[in-house]
Design goal:
The complex is a heterodimer of chains A (about 260) and B (about 325). Chain A has helices at about 40-55, 70-80, 100-110, 130-140, 195-200, 210-215, 250-260, and strands spanning about 5, 10, 20-25, 30, 35-40, 60-65, 85-90, 115-120, 145-155, 160-165, 170-175, 180, 205-210, 230-235, 240-245. Chain A is α/β, with parallel strands linked by helices and about 260 residues long. In chain A, helix 2 (about 70-80) packs across helix 5 (about 195-200) and helix 3 packs across helix 4. Chain B folds into two domains: about 10-185, HUPs (Rossmann fold, 3-Layer(aba) Sandwich); about 210-335, 3-Layer(aba) Sandwich (Rossmann fold), CATH 3.40.50.1220. Classes of the chains: A alpha/beta (about 260), B alpha/beta (about 325). At the A-B interface, helix 3, helix 4, strand 9, strand 10 and strand 11 of A face helix 3, helix 4, strand 7, strand 9 and strand 10 of B.
């Protein structure tokens, strides 16, 4: 194995999502003060990459498209064991939809150079589209597989992948290069060691702007995104929200009576 | 191939099949497509890929298709991403549909991004609602941020406007008297297909009443507290002739099965009665149950988010309430 690229994304910590509010004027979400964490599934992707590296050698390179503040989240993933990182960061990238984002990541991959595998989390927590891995693979003209729960190597040039589908699974065989997106079941990511944290500071974290990537500006950001945001609302419930408190036994009796009244009993 | 080409703009639904079995969501999408087509003057085209699958076409017409475009080739069975992508994008480039709808299944969410990227068109994910604007543009409502935020996505300048749609959200309607036409598309795939090769497919039919078909769903979360208490969830569901659902933690703990998960990465349900027990009410669960007719929630934390999205909420300790409720229902049933 020569090189494995792991795509990662800093996302606002879901523990604080109740603090997200809406700016109707700009149709954006206000997320000030909410700390970032690495997208949870990206840890599984990195763990899978590190296991492959331990078996076959090669370097593990992190790739992220994010604002400059993402550097601290990326350092954390370097501490987990990745060898180096590339952060794609430019004001021109802001507002990119999944296709424009995939173009930027594809340019980053091409600049990094030859690779055997790209590993991604199946989806990110914030957007949850699960679209970037497939779009990136298409732009790079390499095959991809989603929902992967197991990666095995019958020989170093051929991997066997288990894919979760509805009510079952499919086992695939494929030769690199290949993009794989993984789901939670694939592994338990390792803890970050103190030594890892110390070493992470010495590892290379390169930032590439569009002056380096040289993508046509009309293919980037809002202008380069075929999808547009036409509206944004916080979900509101129309339900009665009748809340009862009291002794459990009384509540149970009350509920049973209401189920009778509504014809469920 | 100009067969079936009319002046009417086409609204396409990829009607997924695996091993000759149609995915339910494709039929649901035909139901929605029919509604949008009648409103916006589209022709509904069901697109069916596989090998020797033409026999399924009549069923697609019954569910709402004006025409069925069948692409058959041995390389399309079983499903593989690259041949599917090629055939579907070739058909799109030839016939230029306005809209393409794909079910957000394992197959659909893998296929849609590649197709959209190859065509350079826009794609929205896991839609829970679809509408048309005044100009016939597709308004795609998608949940974000765990479902707490609803965004409306459009694709003004590129075609087809492409969306994946959550299974279970749209309603299918079957009319055996509907008439439609079936066309066979010419498939031009190289004999030697690159890309991953299928080694083995294993599937098992889920046991019992499927969650998405049940009129009553009793769902449990982390607050249920253990496998030995989970049996009470199952007992309550059985007493109500219902199915058992779960949030993520009971799955991780091994109390419940994957097929029982409700929410953004699980199933979307719309039962007459939903009872949520020990469920905190995170949005990624709520998006899967929010269309239930009557929602009952039990949680010992009065500030639990589930109380914001329920019709009736009981603030109670489950270990006390659940045995009482089961005893009460047994008593009532004995009286019948």
């Amino acid at each position: 194995m020569e090189r494995i690229i792991v795509c990662i994304k800093p996302v606002p910590d879901p523990k604080h999502w109740d603090r997200v509010s809406l700016d109707q004027a700009t149709m954006t979400l206000k997320r000030e003060g909410i700390p970032n964490v690495v997208n949870p599934l990206d840890r599984q992707a990195l763990e899978a990459a590190l296991q492959i590296k331990e078996a076959f050698g090669g370097e593990v390179v992190l790739l992220a498209m994010a604002p400059p503040f993402a550097a601290s989240t990326i350092r954390e993933m370097l501490a987990m064991g990745a060898d180096r990182a590339v952060l794609l960061s430019d004001r021109l990238f802001a507002g990119s939809d999944t296709l424009a984002t995939s173009r930027i990541l594809a340019a980053g991959v091409e600049r990094i150079g030859a690779f055997d595998l790209i590993l991604c989390g199946n989806m990110t927590l914030d957007g949850s589209t699960a679209q970037v891995p497939g779009q990136l693979a298409e732009l790079l003209r390499i095959p991809n597989l989603m929902h992967i729960t197991k990666i095995e190597w019958p020989d170093p040039k051929l991997c066997r992948l288990t894919q979760r589908i509805e009510n079952g699974q499919i086992v695939w065989e494929s030769a690199p290069p290949l993009l794989i997106s993984v789901i939670k079941e694939i592994n338990k990511p390792r803890y970050i060691s103190f030594l890892g944290i110390v070493e992470a500071d010495k590892k290379d974290l390169t930032v590439w702007s569009n002056e380096i990537l040289q993508i046509e500006p009309n293919l980037l950001g809002l202008a380069g995104s075929p999808t547009k945001m036409a509206g944004l609302t916080m979900r509101q419930s129309r339900r009665a929200k009748e809340i009862l408190t009291g002794e459990a036994e009384d509540l149970a009796r009350d509920l049973a009576q209401r189920l009778v009244k509504r014809g469920f009993l | 191939m100009n067969a079936g080409k009319t002046d009417r703009r086409e609204l396409w639904v990829l009607t997924e099949q695996r091993q000759g079995v149609l995915a339910e969501v494709g039929l649901e999408l035909l139901g929605k497509a029919r509604e949008l087509a009648d409103q916006g003057g589209f022709q509904v085209t069901a697109v069916l890929l596989g090998d020797r699958v033409k026999g399924l076409a009549d069923e697609l017409i019954a569910f709402g298709a004006d025409q069925v475009l069948v692409a058959e080739d041995p390389a399309l069975e079983p499903y593989r991403l690259l041949p599917y992508t090629q055939v579907l994008t070739d058909l799109i480039q030839e016939r230029r549909p306005e809209i393409l709808l794909i079910g957000a299944t394992a197959l659909g969410v893998e296929l849609a991004p590649r197709v959209a990227a190859r065509l350079g068109t826009g794609l929205s994910a896991h839609c829970i609602d679809l509408k048309l604007d005044d100009q016939g543009g597709l308004l795609q409502v998608v949940p974000g941020w765990g479902g707490g935020v609803l965004a409306t996505i459009t694709c003004p300048d590129h075609r087809p406007q492409t969306a994946t749609v959550m299974p279970g959200v749209m309603k299918s309607r079957r009319d055996p008297l509907r008439r439609g036409q079936v066309f066979e598309a010419a498939v031009d795939l190289p004999q030697d297909q690159a890309g991953p090769r299928v080694v083995e497919i294993s599937r098992r039919e889920p046991q019992g009443l499927p969650l998405e078909k049940a009129e009553v769903v009793v769902a449990g979360g982390w607050g249920v507290g253990g496998a030995e208490k989970w049996v009470l969830i199952e007992e309550l569901a059985a007493l109500l002739d219902g199915a058992v659902g779960a949030t993520r933690p009971p799955l991780d703990e091994g109390w419940a099965e994957e097929s029982q998960m409700i929410g953004q990465s699980g199933k979307t349900i719309r039962p007459k009665l939903y009872i949520g027990l020990g469920i905190s009410g995170m949005m990624h669960h709520v998006v899967g149950m929010d269309q239930s007719e009557f929602v009952v929630a039990v949680n010992q934390d009065p500030k639990a988010a589930i109380f914001e999205v329920c019709d009736l909420g009981l603030v109670a300790d489950l270990t006390e309430l659940l045995p009482s409720l089961i005893a009460e229902i047994k008593k009532l049933k004995a009286l019948d």
